[in-house]
Amino acid sequence: MISYEQPLYRPPCEAGSLIIQVTLGCPHNRCTFCGMYKMKKYQVRDAEEVKADLRKARIIYSYVESIFLADGNTIAMNSEKLAEIIAYARELFPETKRVSSYGGGRFLKGKSPEALKRLAEAGLDTIYFGLETGDDYILNKVNKGVTSSEMVKAALKVKEAGIVLSVYILLGLGGERFWRQHAENTAIALNQMQPNYIRPRTLYLLPGTPLHEEKQRGEFEEASGETIMRELRLMLEMLEVEESYFLSDHVSNYIPVYGLLPRDKGKMLEMIDQALSEPDRYLAPRILTHL
Ligand code: SF4
Fold first, then answer.
1. Cα–Cα distance between 135 and 125 in angstroms, integer?
2. Cα separation, 116 vs 244, whole angstroms
3. Could you say which of 37, 69, 146, 244 would form a disulfide bridge with 26 (CB–CB 3.0 to 4.6 Å)?
4. Is the distance from the beta carbon of residue 28 to the nearest atom of ligand 1 less than 6 Å?
5. pLDDT in tens, 232-247
6. Which residue from 23, 24, 36, 204 has its CB within 8 A of the most atoms of ligand 1, so it is best to mutate?
7. 31 lines ligand 1 (CB under 6 A)
8. What is the pTM of this model?
9. pLDDT at position 202, please?
């Protein structure tokens, strides 16, 4: 049996991937909106145990299209050790088309361009990067531990190394009060990053997280569905990217806005306008039991 320590998270687009935990938990673990790894203490797993898991997977699966290296912020570990594991996975699974992991700006900012190139050469194709917002006030408020300009620099290093940059943004993170600056500054950061993929998720307040407690105390007003659509619309309008896929592939989103930017911007804006014109149909409060 491949060993997994629950809970286990992966991006929605990695649903069909072989998942191997190289690290456990998140070394930051302090974002006020995030409850993913609150119950786990961050640790880097023993490389020999990880390799043993990879060998077990090779026995179980005759074909592995893609591999996702969990948990949160695997990129934070020693780059040479991670490169060694990636190279080993590539050797065992020569058919694999993509090897990916989460990587936050807080940890990427300290990586040298050479370290990222080494990871790319070993076979790391994609980094899922949590920008969440390009607004420094909100970043500080939610304890992201990194500024917008630091994230832009980190993201550019990822691209420079030849690694696909897939950026997550979190709609609603500014709440009802700061939606406009969230939209504007996120678009500005994305324009500087020029990501290969932009993936919006929508804030859903999980009980037990500090941001949920702020809401309970009346210190955070959650953005309504209509505000979130206005935020998304403004962000999209301001996006000036040469070629980025915009993919609303997360269950938390109100509507599935998809497209290749800039080509599909018009039809994506129309879809948002449609939702805004029929809020009862498209923007009713969400009940999400599992994220
Ligand atoms: S959002 Fe990412 S960086 Fe922040 S605590 Fe959660 S997993 Fe860690």
1. 28
2. 22
3. 37
4. yes
5. 999 999 999 999 999 9
6. 36
7. yes
8. 0.96
9. 97
